[in-house]
Each structure stands twice: as structure tokens, then as C-alpha cells.
Amino acid sequence: MSKERDRQPVRIALLGCGTVGGGVLRLLNENRSYLELRVGAPLEVAHVLVRDASKERVRECRAEWVTTDPEVVLGDDRVDVVVEVMGGEQPARRYVERAIRAGKGVVSANKLLIARHGAELIEQAIEHRVDLAFEASVGGGIPVIRTLRESLASDSVSSVHAILNGTCNYILTRMRDTGLAFDAALAEAQRLGYAEADPSLDVDGHDAAQKLVVVSMLAFDAHIDQEALLVEGIRAIDQTDFRFADRFGFTVKHLGIGHDRGDRLELRVHPALVRKASVLAHVDDVLNGVFVQGRALGPCLLVGRGAGDMPTAVSVVADIVDVARSRLEGEPGLSTRSIQLSRRELLPIEDIETRYYLRFDVADHPGVIGTIASVLGNEGISIEQMVQEGRAVDADEGVPVCLITHHTREGAVRRALQAVSTQRFLKAPPRLIRIEDV
Amino acid sequence: MSKERDRQPVRIALLGCGTVGGGVLRLLNENRSYLELRVGAPLEVAHVLVRDASKERVRECRAEWVTTDPEVVLGDDRVDVVVEVMGGEQPARRYVERAIRAGKGVVSANKLLIARHGAELIEQAIEHRVDLAFEASVGGGIPVIRTLRESLASDSVSSVHAILNGTCNYILTRMRDTGLAFDAALAEAQRLGYAEADPSLDVDGHDAAQKLVVVSMLAFDAHIDQEALLVEGIRAIDQTDFRFADRFGFTVKHLGIGHDRGDRLELRVHPALVRKASVLAHVDDVLNGVFVQGRALGPCLLVGRGAGDMPTAVSVVADIVDVARSRLEGEPGLSTRSIQLSRRELLPIEDIETRYYLRFDVADHPGVIGTIASVLGNEGISIEQMVQEGRAVDADEGVPVCLITHHTREGAVRRALQAVSTQRFLKAPPRLIRIEDV
């Protein structure tokens, strides 16, 4: 069993050389000898595909590697592992598919690509007996994928609650800790480089939704259509919500949530009230956190930087090591072959059951609370706590009435909100934040 | 590269079949087909070595596997992987060494064995080209070892702060949340099965010290003599400490701490004040948490159940998969060969630098605070905050004076405490709790 292997280097091609790609080159260089020990052979960079060859790169990127011609990279039979760190859907998808067809191992850090096409790409990888690794597509340097695949190999996941977007988490943390309004916290995040000029991908929940799809693929062996997910962002959260949340013992976090409900899967992305005593409530600022409940393992929380060039590069290199080892060991694709996805139907949002925080900005008239309570009662919704804040100075001014419900169906809650909406005392559309017991 | 491998099963022998061993058999059985996919061959149990064959075992433990004769197990050449879940130093050590010499892969869940003899066992494993995996020896189901070895393959760890003992964490959590005294909280932990009848291994810090040695082996590539560690338990912590800690913005956690200080390693195990805003401060009850600071990765926290049969069994099976794969792949021992430990000298405790919480139970006389402050000043210790609680009703009764210092050397603090100890106003020996910025 102890045959000596040839020490032929494993040849790597990078597609893209932005901040993550540059980080990968730095780490490969700095940890050369340790990585060779782990892989069992040297790792050698063969090509770095870029769009603009004149752009300055990290010192570790040798000029002779750089090319703008995808043919040079993808047509090179001696390349063993293709590392896609370019992002975006195309041409990344085309390049990755071609690499797979050519029998190369692939490492991708591209959440959009894996969320939209992961299932097909895994199928193609299995067909061509190559590995497709994508730890860096979710949670930056946090070993989410590895933990789900390897540590939990003998377990099954019953639920996932994850803070997957650092921008949302930063904004919500600042709103909670400093009393900033959403817009001001967003502007601050933009100044610090934590949010894009167009923040929609982050603050409207789409980035978190992509990551939840990737996490759920491995947590629930599920092939999920991202379009089917309930996705809500954090734009509507205001200081009144934080004040009431605090009073009820909660804080507000933006979560990606997955529950295995037997034949159905419950997946949703939205702001949620989380008990202040829970660990997840203290995963703050730009940190990400993935809380997994394993049937045998019990609770497991992984926290770290969800973005940033170096944390992401650390994950990419860990994947390169795995894919390179698996090629050398003469059994490439074994890891990927054990991913068996099946289409799982999602639970319709009306059928989910949780607790709810409801807020009604109402005219300060007698009888208002009674009306709200009876509308909820008619839908069978039981109220755990109800608070009206202060009194309006002027009778026409609205005052917030907030309540939290016991466990109930979302369908009933939606019907109740619909019914309250017709009431003339309402000064603004009613608001709903789901409560998660995590 | 895509040669078909023979599908010969990988044969496993269990040494020990207590709760963890039983959990392993259950998980191997329940996840048979998935594990076969991941390994690339079936996993087959060949033997289960027990001390008492008449004892009742889990349903999954077939009678024909059970033997009390170590020779039957260790002398069987067809066994590929030996899984040591018996615990204790001997005969576990002898059996593991024999298995290694016979060229078998070894999985061990034995923290005492790995903490005391890990370095030698790794050396033997490397010599005999076999793998030695021990994820389950630390942190139960938390993927600490895997993360350090695989995810951080291209990174280096600058520090570790870890809650490694669930018993201590439970007791401290209950003391903080309910105001229980140490003895009462310990009694409660014993009633709930979280603490042994003789709790010394846990509450005096020895269990955490063993685990810190194992974590540090992989975090710092260091071969450490456990005897050299500073180890303090939690028996001395009382409600006065919790009250002051809270007032200063901290909570009390029992931590294993490691810092890479260049040529030296700083390792210590003791109760510590941790900022209430830090995530680690909210890893409560019996949960364990390992907070790693990677130079490239940044902060990474892993939280989960640090003990318990099923979480630990999940880690054991993950290791079995790795060791089995590596045998099938014709390159057994590759993972273990990349562990390169070197003896690292420990920083003497006098030379560590941190912030300190100091408490003096003093007679309520004028001038006492002044005296304490000048003794500290003489040692160059700068005080950040100082609080005297209440006034004694009777002048002979002690009142606590608590302070926190700026960063200072432990040597200076110890000299200052020595000097204060000679003062007649002191009603009890002065107390010290280190403050950790984590």
C-alpha cells in the first residue's frame, strides 16, 4: 500500500486575478513547502487568465503566467486544476464547463455560478470524473462546506440559521448599537467599503439568498431553484423595530434559514428577531455566522469573515489542496461523486409556522388595540405580548402598537394583516418580522 | 487517471464500545450507503474489543464482532483501521502503538493519550506510513482539528482562545445567570450528569489543559509538555467576581489560551474576563467554543457540543472516512506526514503581558486604596479603573476593592500582590483574574 508516487507537480491555472486571485498567489507562494507536504507534490502555477494584461498585479504574479487568451489556459492539456476566481455568470460558466469536460479539477469561489448552476456543474463533474470544489463561494474563510461535507458525513442536518451577508450584518449592528437610521448606517458601510455604490444585491437579500442556496445544496442534498425562495432585505427595519425588539428580549439579524420538513424544505431569507441570549445574536459587524443543527451532532456554529480577499483565498487554497490530492491519488472526482442532489419541493410560505413580531402604526384612538386583537383572534392567532408605545401628542399622529405572537401559520398572519389594513386607524402598512428560536 | 478501484471493503476494529463506540456503530449503520459513496468502498466492522462481553451493547453491535481478546483484534491482518474509543492511557497506548506498527490506520478519540503521547504517536505513524486521526479528542463534534489542518492549510495561527471544558462553562454560566455559588452550581452540574462525582479533572482545569495541548499541536505545530502549562481552575471564582466583572463590562469564562510569540509560545489555562460584547462571552452552558485568529483568515470561531456520545461519534466517523479513503487511495499516511511538530519553548508566566482584574478584600479603613494604588505604582502597574464596593457596617468586616489594570507584565503583578499581602488591612489573599481581549 505504500507505493512511492511520482512527484510531478500539480499544475494550476487561475481564471481571474483580482484581490482573491492575488491572495491565492500570495498564499501558494508563502506556504509552498507545507502545501507540497500536504498534497504530496509541488503546486505549480501555469497560467493566470486576466482581462487586462497591463493592470498591475501582486508581486507573486509572474509576468510569464499572465495571458488574456482563454484558449492558452483552457486548451493546455497539462493544466490539472482550474481555479475560477473571476466571478459573474459568463464567461465563468463557459470556462468552468470546458475545464470539466477536459477532465480538469475545478475550484470556484463564485457564489452566483454555484447557486444558479451548481447542480448541473456537479452532474457534469461526476460524469467526467473530476472534482468541483467551492468552499470559497460561501462565507469567505469560514469552513462551511467542508464541515457540512466532511465533518457531518455521518449526520444529517435538520436546520440552518445563517448570517450570510456582512453588509446587512454591519448595518444592523450599527443601527442597534448607535441608533443610526438605515440610510445613515448604509452610507457609513459604503464609506468603509463594506457596501457597494448600488447596495441592492446585499441589502435586499439576494446575495444571502445565493449563499443559502449553496449551503442548502450540501446541508439538505437539495437542488433548489433560487427564484422560489422568499427573500426580504433590511431596508424597512427602523429604530422603532430595534426598540421593541430590545424590549421583548431580541435583536434583529438578517438570516438565511433552512429547515428539513420531511418531504418539503423550508427555505427563506429575511430579517429576523433572535433572542439576545443566543450566540448568533452576538455575531456582529461584518462577521458571518452559520448555525447548523445536526441530528446527531446537535448545534454547531461557525463564525468568521464572510468576505475579504485573504479569508476567501485561504478557502480557495484549501480546495486546491483537496482537488490536487484527489488527482494525484488516482481517484479524482470521488468527493464530488458523493454529492447526490435531488430536487426538493419548497414549503409554500403560507404554510411555514413560526412566531411573529407585528407592528401597527395606528391613530391613538380608544378601541384600536381591541380591534387588532380581535382580527388576530379571528384568524386563530394567539398573542404572547402586546405593547403600545407612549401616547401621541396630537390625535392624528400615529403611535406604534407592537406584539409578538405564539407559534402560528404565516397564512393566518397574512390574512390578519390584510384585514387590519382595511382599518382607517392605520397610519402605515402593518409590519411583520419573523422570530427565530435559534 | 480514472482507473476503477477494487471495491474491497475497508475493515474496521473498535477498541472499546461505551457510549461513543456505540454511537459510532449506530452512525456507521445508519449512513452505510452515503459513507460507501464518500469512501469509495464499503466500511465493514470486523471486531469490537470490550472488557466485559456480557454487558449489553447497542442494537447495532453484532454479537459475532464482540471479543475480550485484544489478540483477536490487533493480530488480524485484515483489519485496515483501528478505532480507539476506550479512553485512558493504558492499554490504549499499547494497542494504538501496536496497530501503527502493524500498518493499520488509527482513529482515536482519546484526549489524554494524544495530549501526553501525540507527538510520539505521530512520529510512529509517519514512520510506518499510516494515518493517525484524532478529531474527536478535542471539542466533541466541533471540527477543530479538521479546520486547523485542512481549512488553514495555507495560513498560520497567531492565537487561540478556547472554551474547552463544558463542565466549567456550565458552572460559570449558572453562577452568572442565577447567582448560584460555585458549590451549588457544581452540585447542579453533577445532578445533571455534566460533572463527575470527583470533579477535579474538569473544574481544576486539567481536562482543558489536555485539550489545549492537542489544539496547540496543530495550531502552532508544537510539541508541548503539558506539565509546563499554567493551569488554574474555577473553584476560587465567586459572586463578588461576577458582580465586578459585570460592572466593568466583562463576564467570566474558563479559557485555554495560546499565542504564537515568535520564538516562544504562550500557553495557559485559567478563568478569564471576556468582554460581554465578544461572541465568546455568549458561548454558554455546556457548549465549547474555539476562537482561532489566523494571519490571513482573520477571526474564526467554532462552537458546538464539546462532549456527548453522538457529537463525538460524528467526529470519529468523519475521521474513519478520511483514514479509509487515504488507505484506498494507495497513499496512506499522507495527512499525518504533513504534521511537522517541533518542540516550542513556553514563555515563562512572569513574562506574559495582559490586563488584570485584581481584588483585595480589605478592612474598611481610610488610606487603604491609597496604599494599594501606590504599591501597584511602585511596580509600574497602571490602573484603568478602581472600585470599592459599599462600606462595611462593622469596621472589622472586609469590603472588596477591585481594579482593572492596563497591559502589564505578570511578573510585576505578582510582585505587587506579594507586597500588598504583607499589609495588615488585608482580610483574605488578593485575587487575580486575567483579562483577555478576544
Quaternary structure state of the chains depicted = homodimer
CATH fold annotation of the largest domain in chain A:
Rossmann fold
Low-confidence stretches of chain A: none
Instruction: Average the pLDDT over all residues of chain A and give the rounded result.
Output: 93
Tell me what the CATH architecture of the largest domain in chain A is: 3-Layer(aba) Sandwich
- Cα radius of gyration of chain A in angstroms: 25 Å
Explain the overall architecture.
- Two copies of one chain form a homodimer.
- The first copy, chain A, has 438 residues and is α/β, with parallel strands linked by helices.
- Chain A is built from 15 helices and 20 strands.
- In chain A, strands 7, 9, 10, 11, 12, 13, 15, 16, 17, 18, 19 and 20 form a twelve-stranded mixed sheet that branches. A six-stranded parallel sheet of chain A has the order 3-2-1-4-5-6, sandwiched between helices. A two-stranded parallel ribbon of chain A has the order 8-14.
- In chain A, strand 4, helix 4 (92-101) and strand 5 (105-108) form a beta-alpha-beta unit.
- In chain A, helix 5 (111-127) packs parallel to helix 10 and helix 7 crosses helix 8.
- The two termini of chain A are 47 Å apart.
- Chains A and B meet through helix 1, helix 2, helix 6, strand 13 and helix 12 of A and helix 1, helix 2, helix 6, strand 13 and helix 12 of B.
